[in-house]
Amino acid sequence: MAQAEQAIKFIVDGTPVEAHGLAPSTTLLNYLREQGCTGVKEGCAEGDCGACTVVIGELDGARIDWRAVNACLCLVPTVDGKEVLTAQGLAAADGQLHPVQQALVDNHASQCGFCTPGFVMSLLAHYLELGDAAPSREGVLDALSGNLCRCTGYRPIIDAGLAMTRYPAPSRWSPADAADPARIERLRALQRSQDCRLPGYTAPRSLDAFAAEYEAHPDALILAGGTDIGLWVTKEMRTLPPLLYIGNVVELKAIAYTEEGLRIGAAVRLEAAFAAIVAACPQLAELARRFASRPIRNAGTLCGNIANGSPIGDAMPALIALGARVRLRKGGATREIPLEDLYLGYRQKDLAPGEFVESVFVPALAPDTHLAVYKIAKRRDQDISAVCGGFAVTVCGGQVSAARIAFGGMAATPARARHAEQALLGQAWSMAAVDAAARALSRDYAPLSDMRASQTYRVAVAANLLRRFWFERNGTSAERLDALQPVSLLVGDA
Amino acid sequence: MSTSRVENPAGGVSGKAIRHESAPLHVTGRAHYADDIPLPAGALHVAIGQSEVAHGRLRELDLSLVRAAPGVVAVLTAADVPGENNYGAVLKDDPIFAFDAVQHVGQPLFAVVATSMDAARRALRLARVDIDVLPAILDIREALARESFVLPTVRLERGDAEVALGAAPFCLEGSFSLGGQEHFYLEANVAVALPQDDGSLVIHSSTQNPTEVQHVVAHALGVPAHEVGIQCRRLGGAFGGKESQPALFAAIAAIAARRLGRAVKLRLDRDADMTMTGKRHDFEADYRVGFDAGGRILALDVMLASRCGYSADLSGPVNDRAMFHLDNCYFLDNVRIVSHRCKTHTVSNTAFRGFGGPQGMMVIEVVIDAIARRLGCDPLAVRQRNFYGIGTRDVTHYQMRVEDNIIADLVSRLALSSDYQARRAAIARSNAASSLVKRGIALTPVKFGISFTATHFNQAGALVHVYADGSVLLNHGGLEMGQGLHTKVAQVVADEFGLPLSAIRISATDTAKVPNTAATAASSGTDLNGKAAQAAARIIRGRMQDFLAGKYAADRAAVRFTQGEVHIGETHLPFAEAARQSWFARVSLSSTGFYATPKIHYDPKSMMGRPFYYFAYGAAVSEVAIDTLTGEHRLLRVDILHDAGRSLNPAIDIGQVEGGFLQGVGWLTCEELWWDREGRLKTHAPSTYKIPAVSDWPEVAHVKLLERADNREDTIFRAKAVGEPPLMLAMSVFHALREAVSAAAGDGEAGARAAARLMAPATPEAVLRALGALDGAGLS
Predict the structure, then answer these.
(1) B182, B673 in Cβ contact below 8 A?
(2) CA atoms of B385 and B235, how far apart (whole Å)
(3) Aldehyde oxidase/xanthine dehydrogenase a/b hammerhead domain: which residues (chain B) (predicted)?
(4) What domain range includes position A285?
(5) What angle do the packed helices B357-375 and B379-386 form, to 10 degrees?
(6) Are B270 and A45 inside 8 Å of each other by CB?
(7) Integer Cα distance of B14 and B491 in angstroms
(8) How many distinct structural domains can be found in chain A?
(9) Which of B695, B704, B732, B768 should we substitute to test contact with A (largest number of A Cβ atoms within 10 Å)?
(10) What percent of chain B has pLDDT over 90?
(11) How does DSSP classify residue B267?
């Protein structure tokens, strides 16, 4: 790759900064702390606690798009041309706290205070995206799904989130700032006329340039949101190969809608990708909410989750059940394969050197097809699945005419349950057929025992998820925990 | 009480819901923790080389490649400890660096000092460690079988359990497994050692226990305590996890700083912190209980066994407290408790909010639950039937009279305000109509003893300065770890001087200001330090009164401090003016204050006496639902009524109650420590170890402090300690889950069996296992 000494230019809390000679694997967290911005805290260095949450602002046409991300997983070169906000930059020049901060103070929402700057930033991102809308409990919970607090029990923080829009608008960092010409101009001035190239880091802006670069340098590592590669840096202390950043490729940031379905480019972040998928398939709403946390979904991409190929990645069971296909590209050549065929073995993929996942096509749900995805984990928010199951069964005239069932957490790769599917095909859509299919699952998978669940549990729960799918589709006793209210509120009805 | 009114003046700031003193610093990211303190030029960083073997003999430690790695300035091993190579809190069985026996994965073998944390961490991996691997004991049952103990087994008996069991109309026996818990304070351990010109050290340590850190460091360096000063302004959470553990890290940083004459920082990354530091003890319990047809306990024989890890640490008092709290709120007549303190080749377990009390209380609650299911009655009725009496049945199994018992009344009020009975009936109807989802409800009480069981720790000191401009600087021996201690103590001092809170500033806790302190632990922070600070303020106030009475020819009793002024009869002086005049007249405006908790005594040999000054009470009603296909569950509603005495600050106390409750919910439901067969903890980061997150707080929650609840003992403004007790309110969630499991199994005998199979933590897998859904499941 061409080597040119260039500075990374961005804005931190309103002040333009230039970073020279940084290792491309430097995390934003370490950079900020070394610059004395110690309000950004390291709690875990793996994107699971949220103490390092910052808000990143990025030009999106004539507006600034703000989103909360984990600074510990964000590599500094990827914020080139963007702005970074921290809890230290929110108060007005005269010291007046931002409404988000004041609401936290007024609700007694900090105890030890170590997690607090991260909560401030997650709430700020939500405050900015709300615009004139009033916050909802579910919206606040989603915004805070990536922040851990060990002291408060969260109640006062939730209350602060619900109260924050009731304060007078701040002198800065109000939703209106997204269209503020001066801010936009300042960001525009940072945009490059050429691709960003640093020693060990290249960020092409066109698909052709990206494909050519990767074909020429197949040893490069494709970087998107960094939500996994960041861990290689912080946890495994790996020395990274040259990085090829996909996040600036204009063509790959797009979602294309057709009659047949959605095509989601490789640079589309999880949050946007799931929004599009859920609009088409509302059955995936719960998965979308429980997929990692909001800051992780704001950073990671759907195609990154696919290309990573982890056996416990949560997108794959749903996408395989839907019959998704991936388009792979190498130089100018593309091919398209069923998603499940991408996975050859544990972290092994059907990708030639220099070939990458360009997009994923998510077909529209076929008529008469029931769809569900269930995620099983120890915790509702931001947990890695013990088991994740995706089910799409087409029933015509009472008989199963098509069945696609896929699980994560059950094998070395996300994989279809071919035996279970076979057991259903052509059968009457009945509990008896489902039981037979549930038994057939033991021929599809031999899961491991680990800290998330035992093999026994995984086997039993996978079968039960198939049963749950049947119960829900057939309307009997389809109660789900998420929808329950305390019984006392029902007493009047009883 | 009129005395209370005099002590806690109307119009003062005590008793008010005042925000945390650092809240504006928290939300603006300006609050400094140990890792945020700017380092002097040339500061070095330390990383610790850990054992990857659970048990073995260290044959060779080849660190030549480590020494040669980029950025490495020094490498330290056991041979480099100038003084005592030990940081044990009670016994001397915790080497700073292992030198022969290796006893757990994560045990420090050596340390690397380098120019950056990154360089130090990278260099670690170049070590060549040769260990003769020995068989490791990795769980409690195995330790019991092999009689592997860190401390001798302790017995506590009253009456004759064996005879009473034989005579009881009903008998039950059972076992219970109760998991441990990682503290998961958000701020990992940090120590920054700064050498001074004379070779002495100032250390910024993230510790609840500066005095112990000071002494351990002094011993490790072989210097007197006055050469080591420990400071800490605030902690990013602690929960007991920074009581005995930080001494290790401060000692290593100090050894490096002393040897190299440079500032040295040691900050653990999350994985190192979770691997190297102790946790809440997991417990196994076997019990036999005899009871009557009404569910009243007549005899109880309990075996408690805990995982202490490889060394004693604080396991002695932790297990003692489990024994003391085995009664929770219940009168136990003929009782025998045998407590084994098991040695395993895992990290040494330590203090954690409740300090063994929660484990003991869970055991008796499980026993009560089993009795109720055996008799087919509401567990709440069995609980109430066994409550301590007032004036009768009121002496604990360790011979302390329960003089302040309010549990029956508190529970009745909560049962009423939460509609417990109506909801229990509605849940039964709901369960009958639902096949896949089952609900459960439970009310559990809490009685928790307040004081360190080690009597000598129940003392505190404070240092108060009034400057000539009337501003006040307050210092005391307690640590601010988020619990609001500094806010409360400042409220006390403000009221003593009749000043607004803004006139009081609290500075970092510092062994150079207040020496010989106890750990900020055992819920005692405000009780002890509030009283010590009050004493200091009263000494200064008394001197000012004497002087002003003389100067203005008034009666001493006529000198009053109120509303920012000093009233001397008809003369009203601003406090600042009174301070200035006092200073001008050469009156000392600085004083220490001291407090020692009265009344307490206890004989550690017989385990008899009055280990606790008083008890704090509370109760919770939780409603849950389980999915019987997956074992997933949700907390739908909680109602809490908690006794904080006459609360010094209701906002802060409610925060302790809610936070403690949810932390307890985590312990009993989603937090699971999982070791592999080699003794490696695989849940060593938040990606694998799941503390409650924001969605786990129930949408419907009614949390209240008990009103008109003055402490009958003379505590600071009649408040009660509130740090630990609320954690145990979470027992209601676990028992609601047992209720739901019983319903799912069809109640009756099958329900009782299923409920008794539910162990803690009640993960989805544990729930499904209790339901028998995993019996025979799996791959053939």
Answers:
(1) yes
(2) 43
(3) 28-135
(4) 196-363
(5) 120
(6) yes
(7) 5
(8) 3
(9) B695
(10) 96
(11) E
Q: Would you give the end-to-end CA distance of chain B in angstroms? A: 71
Specify the 3-state DSSP secondary structure of B354.
Answer: coil
The percent of residues in chain A predicted with pLDDT above 70, rounded, is 97
**Rounded to an integer, what distance in angstroms lies between the CA atom of residue A224 and that of residue A245?**
6
Tens digits of residue pLDDT in B273-312: 999 999 999 999 999 999 999 999 999 999 999 999 999 9
Q: Do B659 and A379 touch (CB under 8 A)?
A: no
Inter-chain residue contact B685 with A237, CB threshold 8 Å: no
Please choose, from the candidates B364, B365, B368, the residue with its C-alpha nearest in 3D space to the C-alpha of residue B291.
Answer: B368
Last residue of a domain, one of A148, A163, A188: A188
Q: What are phi and psi of A333, to 5 degrees?
A: -95, 140
Q: What is the ipTM of this complex?
A: 0.97
Q: Which two tokens stand for residue B301?
A: 């024989």
Residue in this structure with the two tokens 């890890």, named with its chain if needed: B309
Does the pTM of the predicted model rise above 0.90? yes
Residue where a domain terminates, one of A327, A343, A363: A363
Q: The tokens 């819901």 sit on which residue?
A: B17
> Would you say A405 and A391 are in contact if contact means Cβ atoms under 8 Å apart?
yes
Distance of alpha carbon B435 from alpha carbon B431, whole angstroms: 7
Of A49, A112, A481, the CB nearest to B235: A112
What topology does CATH give the domain B411-450+613-780? Aldehyde Oxidoreductase; domain 4 (3.30.365)
Q: Report yes or no: B640 and B703 within 8 Å, Cβ to Cβ.
A: yes
Selection from B347, B348, B354, B323 nearest residue B336 by Cα? B323
For A240, the token pair is 């990274």
Measured between beta carbons, which residues in chain B are less than 8 angstroms from residue A49?
186, 270, 686
Angle of the A431-444 helix axis to the A455-473 helix axis, nearest 10: 150
Q: What is the maximum span of chain A, computed from C-alpha positions, in angstroms?
A: 74
Residues A226 and A356 placed together within one structural domain of the fold: yes
Interval A307-352: pLDDT, tens: 998 999 999 999 999 999 999 999 999 999 999 999 999 989 999 9
Residue B186: the pLDDT is 98
A164/A211 same-domain check? no
Is residue A258 domain-resident?
Answer: yes
Same domain as A436, residue A341? no
